[in-house]
Amino acid sequence: VVAHFQPKVLAGKKLLITAGPTYEAIDPVRGITNRSSGKMGFAIARAAAEAGAEVTLVAGPVHLPTPIGVRRIDVHSAREMLDAVMPLAAAHQVFVATAAVADWRPAQTQAHKIKKNAAPGQAQPPQLELAENPDILATVAALPHPPMCVGFAAESQDLIQHAREKRQRKNVPLIVANLGPATFGQDDNAITLVDARGERELSRADKLTLARELVREIAQRLTLYTA
Ligand code: CTP
Ligand code: CA
């Protein structure tokens, strides 16, 4: 109930953000997905709107209300997410990729439910062939004049090492690293900012507090950023 009135550090800026998991259909009733509640992304969308930004949130399947003042586009698959993001990206000053995008999708989606059609234990399980999904963050970062890109890295081990590698591989100025699955679905989070100069750990806090800190950080960096 404090801090309803945040400094408008992103006034006049447009921020595009992805959040939640993606869902890749195997057949009409089954699919592949990632663990992600979307809470961190939605908190950042809210914090950015509070800070005066015009915010567009591209969300995978989540169970969260849209933050006040935020434009929301719902998608399911990684390819739908890419299709929503790409026409918008160049017109934004900031792109924040918090989505837990499924790295692979079934190479084919079956039009009808795959049936077992045999007594229990008698049939060969179907073999699932996978295809690689597009990397949305890397695709945006490779635009001729990309928005300032902020990536996330949820790792189960070697957090900083992986985050550094990701930052370079995707060619983005800032990666926000957090250790999952301990924080998945929780209301608080522990994050470390990883940039070209090094790392800075933020003290553990609830996701909205961290989101507001991150928004201030983004606003500061934006004043120095040139694509
Ligand atoms: N990301 C994305 N599109 C993908 C995969 C990842 O936009 N197809 C973004 C995520 O939103 C996140 C960052 O890239 O901001 C890192 O995602 P992550 O899954 O941690 O990295 P990957 O490169 O996919 O590597 P891995 O899953 O093997 O750790
Ligand atoms: Ca991944």
UniProtKB/TrEMBL annotation:
<feature type="binding site">
    <location>
        <position position="152"/>
    </location>
    <ligand>
        <name>CTP</name>
    </ligand>
</feature>
<feature type="binding site">
    <location>
        <position position="166"/>
    </location>
    <ligand>
        <name>CTP</name>
    </ligand>
</feature>
<keyword id="KW-0511">Multifunctional enzyme</keyword>
<comment type="pathway">
    <text>Cofactor biosynthesis; coenzyme A biosynthesis; CoA from (R)-pantothenate: step 2/5.</text>
</comment>
<feature type="binding site">
    <location>
        <begin position="134"/>
        <end position="137"/>
    </location>
    <ligand>
        <name>CTP</name>
    </ligand>
</feature>
<feature type="binding site">
    <location>
        <position position="113"/>
    </location>
    <ligand>
        <name>CTP</name>
    </ligand>
</feature>
<protein>
    <recommendedName>
        <fullName>Coenzyme A biosynthesis bifunctional protein CoaBC</fullName>
        <ecNumber>4.1.1.36</ecNumber>
        <ecNumber>6.3.2.5</ecNumber>
    </recommendedName>
</protein>
<comment type="function">
    <text>Catalyzes two steps in the biosynthesis of coenzyme A. In the first step cysteine is conjugated to 4'-phosphopantothenate to form 4-phosphopantothenoylcysteine, in the latter compound is decarboxylated to form 4'-phosphopantotheine.</text>
</comment>
<keyword id="KW-0456">Lyase</keyword>
<keyword id="KW-0285">Flavoprotein</keyword>
<comment type="function">
    <text>Catalyzes two sequential steps in the biosynthesis of coenzyme A. In the first step cysteine is conjugated to 4'-phosphopantothenate to form 4-phosphopantothenoylcysteine. In the second step the latter compound is decarboxylated to form 4'-phosphopantotheine.</text>
</comment>
<dbReference type="GO" id="GO:0004632">
    <property type="term" value="F:phosphopantothenate--cysteine ligase activity"/>
</dbReference>
<keyword id="KW-0210">Decarboxylase</keyword>
<comment type="pathway">
    <text>Cofactor biosynthesis; coenzyme A biosynthesis; CoA from (R)-pantothenate: step 3/5.</text>
</comment>
<feature type="region of interest" description="Phosphopantothenate--cysteine ligase">
    <location>
        <begin position="15"/>
        <end position="227"/>
    </location>
</feature>
<feature type="binding site">
    <location>
        <position position="103"/>
    </location>
    <ligand>
        <name>CTP</name>
    </ligand>
</feature>
<keyword id="KW-0479">Metal-binding</keyword>
<feature type="domain" description="DNA/pantothenate metabolism flavoprotein C-terminal">
    <location>
        <begin position="10"/>
        <end position="220"/>
    </location>
</feature>
<keyword id="KW-0460">Magnesium</keyword>
<comment type="similarity">
    <text>In the N-terminal section; belongs to the HFCD (homo-oligomeric flavin containing Cys decarboxylase) superfamily.</text>
</comment>
<comment type="similarity">
    <text>In the C-terminal section; belongs to the PPC synthetase family.</text>
</comment>
<keyword id="KW-0288">FMN</keyword>
<dbReference type="GO" id="GO:0004633">
    <property type="term" value="F:phosphopantothenoylcysteine decarboxylase activity"/>
</dbReference>
<keyword id="KW-0436">Ligase</keyword>
<feature type="binding site">
    <location>
        <position position="170"/>
    </location>
    <ligand>
        <name>CTP</name>
    </ligand>
</feature>
